[in-house]
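Assemble and predict.
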Amino acid sequence: MDRALAADGSVGHARVVAARRFADERGVLLGLAVVALVFGALIGPQFFSAGNLELMARQTVIVCVAALGMTMVVVSGGIDLSVGSVVALSTVVTAVVLRYDGTVAGAAAAALTAIAAGALCGAVNGVLVTQLRVVPFIVTLGTMLLVRGAAKGLSEERRLEAPATWLNDLLRTTHGGSGLIAPSGIWITVALAVAVAFTLQYTRFGRHLFAIGSSERTARLCGVRITRTKIAVYTIAGALAAIAGLMAFSKLSVGDPTVANGLELDVIAAVIIGGGSLLGGKGSVVGTIAGAAIMAIIQIGCSQQGLPNWVQQIVTGTIIVFAVALDRWRSR
Amino acid sequence: MAEAVGAPLFEMRGVGKAFGATVALDAVDFAVAAGDVCALVGQNGAGKSTLMAILAGAVAPDRGEMRLGGDAYAPRDPLDARRAGVAMIYQELSLAPHLSVMENITLGVEPVRRGLVQRDRMRETARRALAELGHADISPDAVVGDLAPAAQQLVEIARALAVGCRVLVLDEPTSSLGHADVRALFDLIRRLKGRGLAIVYISHFIEEVMTIADRFVVLRDGRNAGGGDVEGASANTIVSLMVGRGLDDLYRRGARSAGDVVVTVEDVTPGSAPLALRRGEVVGIAGLLGAGRTRLLRTMFGLEPVTRGKITVGVYSAPAAPHERWRQGMGMLSEDRAGEGLAAGLSIADNMTLSRLSPLGPAGMVLRSRQEAAAQGWIERLGIRCGHPRQKVQELSGGNQQKVAVARLLYHDVDVLVLDEPTRGIDVASKAQIYRLVDDLVCGRKAVLLVSSYLPELLGVCDRIAVMSRGRLGPARPVEEWTEHSLLMEASGTRAS
């Protein structure tokens, strides 16, 4: 189609195609730059100070880690609404294990148990989606409530105090302190982002996710093992949500079954702003991180500018709709 | 023959329509009188669907004129056509399955008073329309989705009557009906004809045409190929008019020789002859749309469950999923290029290599350079016109897209190629290239199973051909024993006289 039209020698059309291609690759980064410049201009150069950047990074880490898993799920044409609940469950599981053993080794065991619990939730999502043939939206809507309930039951609907360990330092500020440029939690997030980006672009599993999301029937025709791949992607997303839960625990230093209520929407928004398509087959880690960063800048920028919360919500909402409209336009 | 029928109720003269460079209809004349059943016949691609779409207002003709009841008829859209009294009953019924019979019959023309739907009048309208069809047994309150296909079809016809249709177009109306239902439908058509409706009957089945139609019009390659009264015409003459053309020199045959049997299919569909595919030969399966050919191929490839019989590929005789078939050396080309054959949003390289990513890097990795190099090789060998292996498939022309889909089988290097309509909707140059490719493959000891609705292609490419008709596969016979005529006779369930 494009070829035929371009052959007409229509310069205007070629320009539109080029603009779309540009938007496709760099739209989010452009958006990120615009948002950063607007708030930089409003607030002044201190907005970009090391301390403030670190604050923003710490603020967005939980969404970012969960969004890495969501990016993979969205690329495969699915969605996972249970991530907020898994984050809460993860904080509770961590606290429960720490209460038994508050040593360094105990903290490691707590983290691994929480990740395993998250992976299990994800695996349940994957099995239900593939075996019951119910759409992911409904399955994960159900498990969202189910997992939240489990977290509340496990903690007997209380906030669980836990002894302080290295887990509490994951997001402790390093500004003006220790030798690290950023807290270890941020480095972990960067490492995970690189790993997920690599997986999506350069592994068989990643290419299979794109194929399933782009056209499940084609993937099946080509011998992609759809059931296996889908269970795997939901399991990984669950594990990443649990790691996001560890970050949340680090901030809270308690196990809280009510934390991260509605987080799944922020996570999905980050993926969508970053160019992911809920129809599947599209999405990238760089885009998702940029999407999460846009939301964090708006949030922190607004509060530092003294703007009330409702302004921030209106701005974020507008950006989500605009980002999706842009997505429709560039895929036309 | 028959007395001169009155002036036609509906008439089209010199109607032409082109889609891009493809001429779908070229100056076609067609007329049907009130109280007359006129059959429209032709092979796949002869232009029947375009003609219907024009009649139904879905497509505007480029030229020519149409008259309905003496007035000029130029519907802007299907609703306009419906209001003018032209109703279509498509092969795929267009009913809302969750609504009741009466809601479907009055859909869009609901009786309303002061903004409220009057269910009593709605029920009455539906009951009257169904009674007119002699089917008062269908309850207006039944949910359409619960009805049998034959009853659903009646509901659709009742809907046409309820809005006062004068011209009723039936497209392959018997394709989903059993024997008794077909007879009931024919009785109904005769009654409607008695009430002065003009009926256009579109079918592949010559016998049906001979039974129900008064007159017939044959289309071939977008033109009138003939027509006349059914009385006095034979199935043979109609089929000859449909075929009408000789083989051209698109097809090439290298030095082929059939070797070992690599695939056997036994008793997968009831009443079918066994099929054996050998190395070094092309076996074709002919048949009409909906005869079950695609289903057979999909079952062989593991895309549909095997419910009976046995399929053997090489040494493997257990039912297998697609990924196992690929491993066993069998690859399939889907007839649905846009929906299944290719992932349109992915790149050429991704599409070509999707079935076999493992050689493209160590330990589950896919190295982009290797993937692109692999794709580039086939892009050059098949002459695929594109910018770059990373270009999205949806930006290519139909012929080039199809070459990408075919290249997947070549890249995978399968021994058995199952090709479902490999040349559908592509230009002649690409077609010729695919024919030559198939010839090269079988000369190189591969085996090809080919389903096609285009008979000259089957006769030109295949070594043996089997015909599938209404779910039954006939024996594969050498191509020399077939003609377009005999294939079409066999496919439409008419025994050669």
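The domain at 27-330 of chain A is CATH 1.10.3470 (ABC transporter involved in vitamin B12 uptake, BtuC).
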